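Long-time lurker, finally posting.

We've been working with Aspartate aminotransferase family protein (Aeromicrobium phragmitis) and I want a structural starting point before designing mutants. I don't trust myself to interpret raw outputs, so I'm hoping someone here can both generate the structure tokens and explain anything notable. Sequence follows.
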Amino acid sequence: MLRSADLPTHGGRTLAYVYDSGLAEADEIGRHALAMYSSANGLDPTAFPSLLTMENELVGFARELVGVPGAVGSVTSGGTESILLAVQAARDARKVDRPVMVLPSTIHAAFHKAAHYFGVEAVVVDVDRATKKADVDATRAALEEFGDRVVLLAASAPSYAHGVIDPIEAFGALAAERGLRFHVDACIGGWVLPFSPTAPPWDLRVEGVTSLSVDLHKYAYTPKGASLLLHRTPELRRPQFFAYADWPGYTMLNATTQSTKSGGPLAAAWAVVQHIGREGYATLARAALGATNRLAEGIAAMEHLALAADPESTLLSFGVDETLDVFTLSDEMLARGWFVQPQMRFGELPATVHLTVSAATASSVPQFLDDLAAAVNSAVAAGPVVVAPELVAAAQATDPAELDDAAFDGLLELAGLGGGGAVALPERMAPVNALLDVAPPRLREALLVAFLDRLTR
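Top reply, 14 upvotes:
Generated this for you. Predicted structure of Aspartate aminotransferase family protein:
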């Protein structure tokens, strides 16, 4: 009953948040292992040596896909934790005043979360407007400007927003000549790009790359809660560890940010990876990559739509012309049984629609394109959502730091997200998203935090 309103996690129609191999047997194996190890605790590997064995074997499998012989790794709870640990390790390895990390503007928001948590300033450089790839010259200039304060350089393989791979070799050279750590966020691409015949060099085999994040619960198709953080050498990983003995209890020793952690996701990941195997993943990757390319070709040929960039993995995004908006189009696709993710404008980049393509989506590409064409026609007929000019002006002039709870209640009601202190999701999100789209990022963040706060009271 409670799940009746949830998006479907299987069938390939939810093109964000979930990853579906389409292999029912693999799903069942994962669920069984998850339940079997749900009470096992990964805190102490001497207490549960089976978890240690499975973690080492998962790292070994990944090392053969993306690594070098001496690479080491840890299983984490997800891509964000892997990224947090990469930033924390870089900060602690190079103790400087006011540490800095240099990031492309398209880097995953988890790096900014790490900046907030660990006091590492995020210096953001632009990407090429056409290709959406990180700008090497702008990155070099930032490295020169901040000099010894830089503790980390990072890039994406691929970026979430546009599905393109940053110039990893060029960034690796920049990092190597300066003795910097260079992290590649391959949370999405890490289990797909090894099987892509067209992917440029992107992994630990590239000179200068010192760490890599690869999610198992994405394209390894394991149950949620499993990622890998790989380091080129044990020395590079050592600052990631935390130990504390100066208290009366047990000596705390952690490889990740968690202490107690369920063995379930780790065991499930190990079981699914063992079941599918390298050849199985090659087949699944080819299916997802092929589906992405067919979707890109169909979208590029469709009136009113244009690809934001040429996809290089299993993600793509596209924009629309002035006759419709991405928010109405997303609602129209949901009405036809497809969840696609609207992405709001960023600087000079317009709003887009994002698609995460799984292997299970491959057989439905023709139906998706037919439904997308119908949704475009409906969105054109409806026209773009018009936000009243006075609301746009108010949004641009509002300082969220000066708003109290009553003001947020009023803004949430104005946005169509509730009233009288209560909140609720409307049936169609286009008017809400259109208003959020014209709000500056800090106000958008504050409104959504206020919304989440009220949802969970």
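Before you design anything, note these points.
The longest strand covers residues 150-156.
The chain has a mean pLDDT of 95.
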